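Running this now, will post back.
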Amino acid sequence: MKILVRTLSTPQGPLWQVRLDQHAVSFRTEAQAREFVSTLQARLNAPHHLPHTQQRAAG
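Update: finished.
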């Protein structure tokens, strides 16, 4: 996943945008945007365990 942080100029003032491929999330401060990216990357890099499916014995 490509993650990009950039600033946007709006009539209300600057916003910080985090782009995740085709999706974008806006924040009021750079710190909020960077914290979001940090949390997202930690979750993506965390170990994920898939549940085992039980197979029924044919009988």
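The longest helix spans residues 30-45. More later if anyone needs it.
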